[in-house]
Design goal:
Layout (H helix, E strand, L loop, with lengths): L2 H32 L3 H4 L2 H7 L9 H4 L2 E8 L7 E7 L6 E7 L5 E13 L9 H7 L3 E5 L4 E5 L7 H9 L6 E8 L4
Antiparallel strand pairs: 1-2, 2-3, 3-4, 4-6, 4-7, 5-6
């Protein structure tokens, strides 16, 4: 094969490769955009017809978010707390705002994860059977502080307490399990 033919074949192959990579990248982008985020679609109709506004005591930075879910716990007739899920595009994309109806105090936490402080001598790999049994996902692990961040069971307003309750039978693996509290300074 002549040198000019080799160069032509090389350039033609390069152009076809670029075209294929471009098509694959565009297709993945379209699929990613088309995939519905379960947090944003959960209870969308209920929000449109009945979500209460956030309390006045809530910081302005939280008020800037979009309410994606609202409800009462344990239920509307015996309500002890009001719960809002608020969506952001920042480091905590889903924030859980909980208003205690007896005191009016609001607390703020991540709506989609909890924090486990592992027991002494327990490695993060020991969590795998528990996570698999419950269908949970390890999101992050800090070996220095022996802390694991775990996703929650569902997108419902009771997801954080329900996940904490579901994890308690495995309490020999951790010292503490808590919501991922957000503090304002």
């Amino acid at each position: 094969m002549k040198r000019t033919n080799r160069i032509f074949v090389y350039v033609l192959g390069f152009m076809i490769g670029i075209l294929l990579v471009s098509v694959i990248t565009n297709r993945r982008g379209v699929q990613r955009k088309a995939g519905a985020d379960p947090w944003l679609t959960h209870n969308a109709e209920a929000i449109n017809v009945g979500a209460e506004p956030l309390p006045e005591a809530v910081p302005a930075v939280i008020r800037a978010g979009t309410i994606v879910d609202f409800g009462y716990l344990p239920n509307k007739l015996q309500a002890q707390t009001k719960v809002w899920h608020v969506n952001f595009d920042q480091s905590y994309p889903y924030v859980r705002v909980v208003e205690d109806l007896s005191s009016g105090v609001c607390s703020y936490m991540a709506a989609d994860q909890i924090v486990l402080k592992l027991a002494d001598g327990v490695d993060v790999t020991a969590l795998k059977p528990m996570l698999d049994d419950l269908g949970l996902r390890l999101r992050m692990f800090n070996r220095k502080d022996n802390v694991a961040v775990v996703g929650v069971l569902t997108t419902r307003i009771d997801a954080v307490p329900a996940t904490i309750k579901a994890i308690w039978p495995y309490s020999d693996l951790f010292k503490a399990v808590d919501p991922d509290i957000i503090e304002f300074k």
